[in-house]
């Protein structure tokens, strides 16, 4: 393994890509700790010490996760990559609904370029909306759940200062989006995924240190061993796939013979990835938003019900059950809109391909749909169980709010890590005929 790292840095082209990627990631992390104009950084740190960071981040867990904690620091990169992720998901869903977007998707590189441009515009609009909401919460004291007076960390809450903060945080999101595209084009791996990976990894040392100081050494050792088994299990499921064999018949085009080859369609067990968890988390943010708008101290039955069963920390069985059901439902929904068995069957029939013992056309589409449904069922259950891990740990121990292994974080870390290692391995095999992993 160490020899593979040495060979990676001895290859000039790959070394330049790795160093460029590390350089961009370093700048990104620096921007995550620089406060926006008008924010008292000393007071912000004091607020984070006075309030339980897990409780404060529970309401905004998804945004805070993808910002590496920069959200609660009101940093210039406080929104992180979340606006871009949301815009990408929305455009992906609209592709099925709007014929114009579906046509662009089928046009190849030119159509994909236009869809990317639309994603950038939507990211900008969402960044303005989210930065305005976060700064409004900070101004009213809701960002830290009333633990710190707003005047301490926002000494000047004039309109000019607030507009400047919105502009800076929105510009920070645009810079992050540019960083991701630069890494994808000139670095190693998918830029957006690596930025998310970096923000999640950055919270691990502090999380492990808190477990070390708050719990006994035996508990710390048990958590580390359990984390290794959990990571191994996630790697096993993420790599698992059903390979459906496809045979292409021979055909003459002019004077040349084409076809006659065998290949396969890889269908992953977790075909939806981490998207269903993001969908479910975003939807369950709505009860918290309703409570914030109506006031946490309100005596309304709606607020009482939401505070009781849909608390921000998600420890109530009703919240967990709803979260699990949403993840399973969204997993089937997302797979249904991203993988079209009828389209795959038509393309196979067009180029003379067929699945052995299955007739081309409609029978092939029905067979693919049957296999995909059976694969998605365990994949959806797996996603739900992984996402519930931190909630179960929090509800059972009460001191596991800083549990760093579980939910969205472990899925993203393993997935991005595997993809990046595969890209480095492909670069090494092209030049040295030896992969990254022997």
From TrEMBL:
**What are the GO cellular component annotations?**
plasma membrane
Using the record for this protein, list the coiled-coil segments as residue ranges, or answer none: none
Q: Where in the cell is it found?
A: Cell membrane; Membrane
Q: Which PROSITE patterns match?
A: SECY_2 (PS00756)
Keyword list (alphabetical) reads: Cell membrane, Membrane, Protein transport, Translocation, Transmembrane, Transmembrane helix, Transport
Q: Where are the transmembrane segments?
A: 70-97, 118-138, 158-180, 192-212, 218-237, 274-296, 316-339, 380-397, 403-421
Q: Does the keyword Transmembrane helix apply?
A: yes
| An individual GO BP term | protein targeting
Q: InterPro entries per the record?
A: SecY, SecY/SEC61-alpha, SecY_CS, SecY_dom_sf
> Where is it mostly found?
membrane
Q: Report the protein's function.
A: The central subunit of the protein translocation channel SecYEG. Consists of two halves formed by TMs 1-5 and 6-10. These two domains form a lateral gate at the front which open onto the bilayer between TMs 2 and 7, and are clamped together by SecE at the back. The channel is closed by both a pore ring composed of hydrophobic SecY resides and a short helix (helix 2A) on the extracellular side of the membrane which forms a plug. The plug probably moves laterally to allow the channel to open. The ring and the pore may move independently.
- HAMAP family tied to this protein: SecY
Q: What is this protein called?
A: Protein translocase subunit SecY
Which organism's genome codes for this protein? Actinorugispora endophytica
Q: What is the lineage of its organism?
A: Bacteria, Bacillati, Actinomycetota, Actinomycetes, Streptosporangiales
Q: Which gene encodes it?
A: secY
